[in-house]
Design a protein that fits this description.
Blueprint lengths: L13 E5 L4 H12 L3 E5 L15 H13 L3 E5 L1
Parallel strand pairs: 1-2, 2-3
Amino acid sequence: MTGSTGPGGFAGKVVLVSGAARDQGRSHALRFAALGASVVAFDICEQIENVPYPMPRPEDLDETVATARAAGGVIDGYQ
């Protein structure tokens, strides 16, 4: 998967990525953006009462969007 128009490329495609603020979701959002997709990235970005570990923050989603855009990707982030 090496170019946005070659095999595995995503030019002209829209990809939805959940959990995009951190970790696996972030890596998927960045990779799809690098392959030429227009990425719609979303994450809850708030703490859920019964989840014992820290949930992502809005700043984490902002970082995903900024990183993709800095590399020339097309991405929008939503909470």
